[in-house]
Design goal:
- The complex is a heterodimer of chains A (121) and B (506).
- Chain A is mostly helical and 121 residues long.
- Helix content of chain A is 69%, strand content 0%.
- Chain A is built from 4 helices and no strands.
- Chain B has a domain of 196 residues.
- In chain B, helix 13 packs antiparallel against helix 15 and helix 13 packs across helix 18.
- Chain B is globular, with a radius of gyration of 22 Å.
- Classes of the chains: A mainly alpha (121), B mainly alpha (506).
- At the A-B interface, helix 2 and helix 3 of A face helix 5 and helix 6 of B.
Chain lengths: 121, 506
């Protein structure tokens, strides 16, 4: 179970970082989402992985740590709000510049922006 | 339990909520309420400073949960100093914002107050995860404030700032998770005990967590490899927002001071003085880059933005010395540089308003209407920022220079700080002489006339550098007492024994 969880966290984080470094805003937003999923799973795993454990006294033989669950809950709420904000910001940037490049449109002419479009492909 | 500790958090929270509800009320009413909130906040911060001046720690257990299980607020000299520094700056830049930038958006005042709330939570909290929450509160308010204003030139710097800080938050969570996984606590006082006694097999995880945390704080305070977001973000914001943002880099400074002296300090066993050896060289490199940027700046606001980096470099160089004198010099310098840099942002905006379409570019332009007042304000601000006598920047730098113990560290610190100061002086002289002395014929048709609030707020912030000199004796004594209290970590651990209401233990 440890290996599976570790691989999932690693895959989510790696894809998140890769997408975060893209030149278009949509992959960047997706990358942030994946990164926050990876981080949330990681936070959850810091309380040690176990099956059948409950954080309530007297309910089971083995207890799971309730604190990471509370931390994850907080992190999810904050991450959700931030993602919503960054989506709105990306839409605003797209509307302002008629382009979804993370550096906005190039006002000096379209040559540079076409070059960067080709590069990003 | 002293309930006044919650005042710096509750006042902007309630004031901000009130602003949300009166969003459609007449503008004068909203302004009065908003400014009154900041004024009450300033009063409460000064009251807490007087309270903390006796040198003891005061803890407030939120929800009456005994530490280390609940969240505690801790007031000591450092927290009180940060609160007052922020509140003075907040009041002045809030006063400046009125009549100028708060007309375009109904949310300005509430966002501004929520930003102050986030800052105050960060200064008062005694819990690492709560520090993360405080960072998020102040960041989401700052995203809104950064985007505030007309035009489309802010969307791209805003997007960069948001994405970078979201990545920083992810790193913060990872480091908090790593530290929690081996210590089982996030209360700072409890961590200080547990880190020293950690299982040797777990030391690498804790070390990685601690260094990741340093990366996060370095990103917030803009140390060299992580500072490239700052110039664009600060230069594109409106003037009062840039002024209050000056304090946001100081939150990173505060967090590093608090966490790395208390948790990874001299008594942390295997991890004693973690990250301290990285701080000093990176700080000097940041300072050098700030100076180079200031020399190459082509408008006044960018010049002041690089001044923020110069301040951060100077501060961390002093903190990196790792002794009481260094930290006390850093605290003295920090208060001065925060107020003066913020004041300079406001001066730049006043200058830009009187030069028509030229704005604050460092080029010749027709004479300004209020050139005498503005040039004197700029001169005083530049003298205090560069660190020339007789203003406070000089004394701050002197304290930092004196703190270095003879050796290679001293050679590097003196050389970089003094030569850097000289080149900063050149940058300010060049900018000032072109903007104020080299005038072209003609006049600007539409100028923004100075009003009483903007003149007073800018003047007060710049005059603070003189006020600090007048009060240099008590103030440097306070800074030194703060540094001593900070290094005497044993006393901080007493907050773990804070009695809860209704408990039997005294």
């Amino acid at each position: 179970m440890e290996l599976t969880v570790a691989l999932v966290i690693g895959a989510l984080t790696a894809s998140g970082v890769y997408l975060l470094l893209r030149a278009r805003t949509f992959p960047v937003v997706l990358g942030l989402t994946l990164l926050s999923y990876g981080v949330n799973l990681f936070l959850f795993a810091t309380g040690r992985l176990m099956t059948g454990g409950q954080p309530i006294l007297g309910s089971t033989e083995t207890y799971s740590d309730p604190l990471p669950q509370a931390l994850v809950l907080t992190a999810i709420v904050i991450g959700f709000a931030m993602t919503a904000f960054v989506v709105v910001l990306a839409l605003r940037s797209q509307a302002d510049h008629q382009d979804d490049h993370v550096d906005g449109a190039n006002h000096n002419g379209h040559q540079n922006s076409t070059v960067s479009q080709e590069q990003s492909r | 339990m002293n309930h006044w500790l919650t005042a710096p958090i509750l006042i902007p929270l309630l004031g901000g909520i009130l602003q949300v509800f009166v969003g459609y009320a007449p503008l004068p009413l909203r302004r009065t309420l908003a400014l009154a909130t900041t004024a009450i906040l300033l009063a409460s911060a000064i009251a807490l400073l007087a309270l903390a001046n006796d040198g003891s720690y005061r803890a407030y257990t939120l929800g009456n949960w005994a530490p280390p299980f609940g969240i505690v607020l801790v007031l000591d000299r450092l927290a009180a100093l940060m609160l007052v520094m922020t509140a003075v700056l907040a009041f002045c830049s809030h006063l400046y914002a009125i009549n100028r930038v708060d007309e375009t958006s109904r949310q300005f005042h509430s966002l501004y107050l929520f930003l102050l709330m986030g800052l105050n939570i960060a200064f008062l909290t005694g819990d690492l995860f709560n520090l993360f929450v405080a960072f998020e509160v102040l960041l989401i308010a700052s995203y809104g404030l950064l985007m505030h204003g007309k035009g489309t030139q802010r969307t791209v710097p805003g997007l960069h700032y948001v994405v970078l800080n979201l990545a920083g938050s992810a790193l913060f969570l990872i480091s908090v998770g790593m530290i929690y996984s081996v210590t089982g606590t996030l209360n700072m006082a409890d961590l200080a005990i547990k880190v020293a006694r950690v299982n040797p097999a777990d030391v690498p995880i804790l070390q990685a967590g601690g260094m990741l945390l340093l990366v996060v704080f370095a990103l917030k305070s803009a140390i060299l490899p992580l500072c490239f977001w700052l110039p664009k973000a600060y230069a594109s914001a409106t003037a009062p927002v840039s002024a209050i943002f000056v304090v946001m880099t100081k939150v990173g400074v505060y967090a590093i001071l608090r966490v790395y002296i208390l948790i990874f300090g001299a008594e942390a066993g295997a991890l004693a003085n973690l990250g301290l050896d990285w701080l000093f060289p990176l700080a000097l490199a940041t300072l050098v880059m700030g100076v180079i940027g200031a020399l190459g700046a082509n408008n006044l606001k960018t010049l002041v933005t690089w001044q923020v980096l110069i301040s951060v470099g100077t501060l961390f160089a002093a903190i990196g010395l790792g002794n009481v004198a260094g930290v006390s010099g850093a605290l003295f310098y920090m208060v001065n540089t925060t107020w003066v840099t913020a004041g300079l942002f406001l001066v730049c905006d006043l200058v830009a308003g009187q030069r028509g379409c030229v704005g604050d570019k460092i080029v010749t332009a027709p004479r300004m209407h209020n050139r005498t007042l503005l040039s004197v304000l700029f001169l005083l601000g530049a003298v205090a920022a560069v660190g020339l006598p007789p203003l406070s920047g000089f004394f701050g730098k002197l304290l930092i220079l004196k703190a270095a113990t003879p050796g290679p560290q001293m050679v590097w610190l003196w050389a970089v700080l003094l030569i850097g100061g000289f080149f900063t002086l050149i940058a300010y002289s060049r900018a000032g002489s072109i903007v104020f002395w080299r005038n072209s014929e003609g006049h600007v048709a539409q100028i923004e006339r100075l009003t009483v609030p903007v003149t007073v707020s800018t003047g007060v912030l710049i005059a603070m550098s003189a006020a600090i000199v007048v009060l240099a004796g008590p103030f440097s004594a306070y800074a030194e007492a703060t540094a001593r209290q900070l290094f005497d970590t044993g006393q901080y651990l007493e907050i773990l024994h804070t009695p809860t209401i209704g408990s039997d233990t005294p």
